[in-house]
Write a structure and sequence with these properties.
Bound molecules: zinc ion
Distance between the termini: 42 Å
Order of helices and strands: HHHHHHHHH
Mean pLDDT: 89
Radius of gyration: 19 Å
Number of strands: 0
Structural class: mainly alpha
Shape: globular
Low-confidence stretches: none
Number of domains: 2
Length: 254
Amino acid sequence: MELYYIILFFILGTVLGSFYNVVGYRLPKNESIIYPKHSYCPNCHHTLSIGELIPIFSFLFQRGKCRHCHHAISFFYPFIEVLTGVLFAVSYYSFGFSYQLVISLSLSSLFSIVIVSDLTYLIIPDEVTAIVGLIIAGATFWGRGYQEGLMALGSGVLLFGIMYGIMLLGDFLFKRESLGGADIKLMFIAGLSLGTILGILVIFISSVVALPIALSLYITNKEKVVPYGPFIVFSILLLFLLKVDVNSFWQLLI
Ligand SMILES: [Zn+2]
């Protein structure tokens, strides 16, 4: 029965992952994600039929090419579908049916959308951060009660403030925009989901993971702007899935 649900959540994740590709690509361009255009080939603009919209399988059957113009489909689409599927399955495996599952699925969804939109446009749509924040806040109030819910909101605001301070400092030191506004809003999600201490840990983990990647991109491509959003959400999700709690974290340090 357990395996049945794990597979079910994987399939649900791939279907939603397919939708998140659309959200991540179209929302920053202010294109409707439902109307009026259906999913289309970005090269020949041919509208995709139901058969071409099945997550993963369509890509495999068409051997990664558009059925009409034979233009190669980015490997990115099925990657996001598989990633979301795996994260959904792991979320269910870790938390079962609980309020934490709702949070974990929301963070997984945020991760997929942020990868697409931040890598493509260096933009994270505010709508997405807001909706995910609302769902996580709702789940926290529902699962942990009014008082802890308020505490979580407080941690979110605090982390937002800390990141805002880091941004001001960075702008002052580097004399240019160092952090995007969207990254700061993501730190609200970090505090809300993990509390203050682990939220601060997210800043460290995401910087440590992002730095070598940013350096190598700078050396190979002279890429100066590296999207930071995916690293933030990755770190939040990692700490949440590992169920790291503050007390055991302190014991590790002392
Ligand atoms: Zn095409």
